[in-house]
Amino acid sequence: MTVFKDAEEVEEPDVTISEAAEKASLLEESIKPRANLPPLLVNLEDRRPEKLHYLGVSFGLTQELFRFWRKHSFYPFYVGQIPSAVTGEHTCMALSPLNSDDIKAGDSIQLGFLEPFYKDFRQRFRRLLGTSFRHLNFKLAMSVLASKIDFSHHEPSEHDTSITLKLLRDVLSPHDMKRLEAYSNNLVDYHLILDLVPILAHEYFSEKLPVTLHGAQASVLFCMGLQDKDIGATKEELGIEREQVLSNFIKTMKKLYGYLNNTAGKEIEATLPRLKEIEAPLSRSMDEDLDEAAQEVKEKRRVADEATVDPKLLQKYAIKS
C-alpha cells in the first residue's frame, strides 16, 4: 500500500472517516478492506505542522533532575502528593512555554501564558509543605518553591506598606507584635512565639515581606514555619547544632520584627491600650509644703503684731475717772 502520493495523484474520498464511523455498527459491520478511505498520512506539502505552545516533561522529583530541567527553562505546574511505591519519588510535571502569537501572554514575558498556572502551583505547593511534603528534603522543596530571599536591591513602595498594614490588621495583633519584640530583645523563650512562625513564614515565602535573609536563616524559617518541624528535626535536617538553629532563628525573627515595626510601628502603638494621663508628681515633699505654710502664718502674725494701733480704736476701752 502506498501511503504518500504526489499531490496530483491524491483523490478526494467519497466519505470521511468520521462519517463512515457514524454509519457503521459494530454488530453489523463485516471486516473487509475498505475503498475510498483517506490516507492515514499526508504529504507535509499539503498540511502545515501544528503550532506548539509549550514543551512538557514528567519525571521523578529529585534534586539533580529538577536542577537539570529548571536550567532549561522548565517550570513545574504539578507535583504528586503520593510518592511512588517503587522509587519513593514524587511525580513532577513541568512546562517550557514557547513563543506563540495566537495565545495572549501574561505579565511575564518569560513565562507567558504559564504565569498564572505557575503562580497558582507555588501557592498550593507552599500550603502543602506542612502535610504532604513535610518530609521532602528542604533544599529540593525550596528549589521547587523558588521564593526570593535577597531583597538588597528592592525599593520600598506604598504597595509594600499596604500589604504590611493589612497583615497587621487582619493576622497579627498588637499583642503578637509585643511578643515578637520581647523575643527579639531576649526577654522570653522562643516557645512563646512558635504560633507566629508559620504566619510569618507563609508571608515571607510568598514574597510579601521584603526582608533579606541568608541561606541558613531562610532554611531555618522554611523548616520550622512551612514544614512544621521543631528545633530537633530542623537540626537533623540542616545538619547543624541546636545552638546554631536557635541563633539563626532569633536573627530571622529580629529582621522580620524590625521590618514590621519600622513599616507600621505608629499604627501598632495607636491600637494598644494605654493608661489615662495623670497629673505630674510633686517636685517637693509634703513636709516641705507644710513648713512653707507655717512660715507664711508666722509672717502674717509678726506683721500684725508690729502694726501701729489706731488710738480711736482704743478710745472705747478707756477708763473714766
From TrEMBL:
InterPro entries listed in its UniProt record: GNAT_dom, TmcA/NAT10/Kre33, tRNA_bind_dom
Positions of region (Disordered): 286-306
Stretches with biased composition (Basic and acidic residues): 295-305
Domain (Possible tRNA binding): residue spans on this chain: 113-320
Entries under Pfam families matching the protein: GNAT_acetyltr_2, tRNA_bind_2
One GO CC annotation: 90S preribosome
Gene Ontology terms for molecular function: 18S rRNA cytidine N-acetyltransferase activity; tRNA binding
Domain N-acetyltransferase: 11-98
Domain of life of the native organism: Eukaryota
Single biological process term from Gene Ontology: rRNA acetylation involved in maturation of SSU-rRNA
Signal peptide: none
Protein name from the UniProt record: RNA cytidine acetyltransferase
Origin species: Aegilops tauschii subsp. strangulata
Lineage: Eukaryota, Viridiplantae, Streptophyta, Embryophyta, Tracheophyta
